[in-house]
Amino acid sequence: xxxxxxxxxxxxxxxxxxxxxxxxxxxxxxxxxxxxxxxxxxxxxxxxxxxxxxxxxxxxxxxxxxxxxxxxxxxxxxxxxxxxxxxxxxxxxxxxx
Length: 97
Fold this sequence. Notes:
By secondary structure, this protein is α+β, with helices and mostly antiparallel strands. The protein contains two helices and seven strands, in the order E-H-E-H-E-E-E-E-E. The termini are far apart.
């Protein structure tokens, strides 16, 4: 099946492009796709999964919906899905008055 993968911020830099189409097995899960990305790109190695689960603070969306509200790394994929990967957001200190 065909997926569209979208990358943001430092992950975009690691992959070298904003968006990539990918063919995956029909029974692929979000975790399978993330593991494949970690093995393919040095800049993503160890950045997406931790003990088979999506790393804390990482945002992974399937068709605009956070997969943590689905089955996490075990979320099943379907032909035509869009998977977006966002790195943790830094900063956010309290504003000064």
